Amino acid sequence: MTKIIQISGDSSSTGAPSHVLRLSKGLKDNGCEVVLIAPKGPLVKKIQELGIKTYEVRMRGFFDRNADHKIREIIKSELPDIVHCHGTRGGWLGRLAARKVEGVKVVYTEHLWTEYFHLPNYAIEKFQLNGLKFMERWTDKTIAVSESVKDFLVSRGFNKDRIIVIPNGVDPQFLSHKIIDKPQDAPLVIGSVGSLNQIKNYRNAILAISKIKKKYPNYNFHYQIIGEGPLLGGLKNLARIKKVEKRVHFAGRVDSVVERLQHFSIFLNVSLSESFGLAVGEAMAMGLPIVASDIKPLKWLVSKDCGFFVNPRSPDQIAQALEKLLFDKSLRKQMGERAKNRIANKFSEQAMVKKINDLYTDLLSDKARR
């Protein structure tokens, strides 16, 4: 039985931790022994509910010697075949710890960096990227969640022969549900899912909603945002200023994203940066047409048959694309059906787990031949 330790520096319910959750479950279902190391949070709780062994380790930063020591001791005690690290903090601390344990293969998944992503502080960004490259020496294989991630890593000098593209897999529960066909007099719901931060670009989304409302004041539609974050107050204030506070609803964190997506008619994602776009993939799996940023990762995921691509910095373009779908039920249905089929055929969770499990097998076979 292959034993894998998954290490995540983030224990929230967002993209990368959700990936770790689904991967851990899939590996367990395929007969692997899985152990999780992560800070206290929703990810740990959900992993424990699956009957998977967990260790809570607070990871306060790249130079957290206490976390480094704890992670190394756990790896030594568990004696895994593979240590699989995720994200910036988990990738740094996990690989630092694993490098001093003999006989362990190390895999790292890059969930964040593409040509579109930037940190507000250039010095910190440069430090993180240099650190990412430095850690490659203690990494047997790097998984890029999209071609855009791989292209970025190669452009930064990473060894392309050590990089493999394995897209995130979409939870099958989204494929097993479909959107609710609303009565004719019910409002259409444009929806988004994601943290309320600058990258997600909700400001321009709300400006686009205000343009549609001004142009069609009596048209029955709403915009619902699922997610939490530091910009909540500012976004609510913007909705009031633009007189769309009765049209724009902030749902916060919800117990079931699936149930909320069933009531959406259109999914909107105008992020300035995405490495894959998991929330978009989940919406597609439900059969929703997409309006998305014209950036490589989302174009790779969505394709032009499943939605419209817009300049995320242009509220006018966002509004025009939304209008096309709001006023054409047949188009919404056609694009939604194509979106669901695309996820089922190209981005299933089952395919993702199999590819990663095959990677583990190849690494261990290489180890055995030496």
- Let me know the largest β-sheet: 7 strands, parallel
Q: Per CATH, which architecture of the largest domain?
A: 3-Layer(aba) Sandwich
CATH class bucket of the largest domain: Alpha Beta
Using the alpha-carbon principal axes, give the shape: globular
Order of the strands making up the biggest sheet? 3-2-1-4-5-6-7
CATH level-4 homologous superfamily of the largest domain = Glycogen Phosphorylase B
Number of separate strands: 13
Question: Which class do the helix and strand fractions yield?
Answer: alpha/beta
The CATH topology of the largest domain turns out to be: Rossmann fold
The count of helical stretches stands at 15
Overall pLDDT level: 94
| Rg for CA atoms | 21 Å
Low-confidence stretches: none
Could you estimate the helical fraction of the residues in percent? 40-55%
How would you describe what is shown here?
It is a single chain. By secondary structure, the protein is of the alpha/beta class. Helix content is 46%, strand content 17%. The chain is built from 15 helices and 13 strands.
Please give the structural blueprint.
Layout: E1 3-8, H1 15-29, E2 33-38, H2 42-49, E3 53-56, H3 65-78, E4 82-86, H4 88-98, E5 105-110, H5 122-134, E6 141-144, H6 147-155, E7 163-165, H7 172-175, E8 188-193, H8 202-215, E9 221-226, H9 232-241, E10 248-252, H10 257-261, E11 266-269, H11 278-285, E12 290-293, H12 296-302, E13 307-310, H13 315-326, H14 329-346, H15 349-369
Parallel strand pairs: 1-2, 1-4, 2-3, 4-5, 5-6, 6-7, 8-9, 8-11, 9-10, 11-12, 12-13
Helix pairs in contact: 1-15, 3-4, 8-13, 11-14
